[in-house]
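Morning F.,

Quick status update on the modeling queue. The single chain you submitted on Monday has been processed. Sequence for confirmation:
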Amino acid sequence: MYRMAVLAMSLEGQIEGLDVNRTVSMCLVHDLAEAIVGDITPHCGVSDEEKFERESQAIQKIASFVPVNYVGEHWVELWREYEAQDSLIARIVKHLDKFDMVAQAFDYERKYGIDLEQFFESTKTSFSMSPFVEWDRELRQRRDLWLQKKSVT
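Structure tokens below.
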């Protein structure tokens, strides 16, 4: 979430009409429910409806602990907007989430010497907006160079 928020700040002036502060806020709360329910992936065998229900209950529970009621309600609102994917900000945060995932995978490959090709395969067509298409291309080029150097040594 942190890398996503920092990258969101870098979008200032790059995407017309983008509210960067709201984007950063959504980056920080979009996965907050996972603190309670964990990261439910497609491999978990949980339906989309069940995942949504579990996470919805979790984000509401977390929000109920926030001392200033309207702040917690705002977090729930941001989470719902992200889940609906019907706003520019939500789609941008989805792109940031996918980019963060492949960037983290590349970090782990270099740090731990493991092959995380499945993350790169699963996101091949995930990026459709600028600057994410360019960021993804640059990351994949860096990874390809790293893999070439690694195979030589």
